[in-house]
Design brief:
The protein contains one helix and six strands; from the N terminus they run E-E-H-E-E-E-E. The chain has one helix spanning 36-51, and strands at 3-6, 10-16, 60-65, 74-81, 87-93, 96-104.
Length: 108
């Protein structure tokens, strides 16, 4: 994590995707890509840590992967609180959106 900013709706996290991350191993040779399950996992973990939401993980996930997120990228993860304990997220860099969606916990 490079930076963390609280906003009125949630939090913005500037992240650097290091090429040595374990989930990138073998995903995929010749075209390394951050697995979508990692992106969702980070949403859940950072939501629990910074927003006190999703402490028991995700029960409902709605996501759209728009671009491949590759190692050595810098991205901003935007997390916004929604009603019912849900979290809206977006991974972006400048005007490019890599993935977006919503995650709800078990009680939603």
């Amino acid at each position: 994590m490079l930076a963390c900013r609280q906003t009125a709706e949630g939090v913005e996290l500037d992240l650097h995707i290091d090429a040595d991350l374990a989930p990138l191993a073998g995903h995929f040779p010749g075209l390394p890509v951050v697995p979508g399950v990692c992106l969702v996992d980070w949403v859940v973990r950072f939501s629990a840590r910074h927003l006190d939401l999703l402490p028991d993980g995700a029960a409902k996930i709605q996501t759209k992967f728009r671009r491949l997120l590759q190692p050595e990228a810098d991205v901003t993860l935007v997390l916004r609180r929604l009603s019912g304990g849900r979290v809206q997220f977006e991974y972006r860099h400048l005007d490019a959106v890599y993935a977006s969606g919503t995650v709800a916990g078990g009680g939603a």
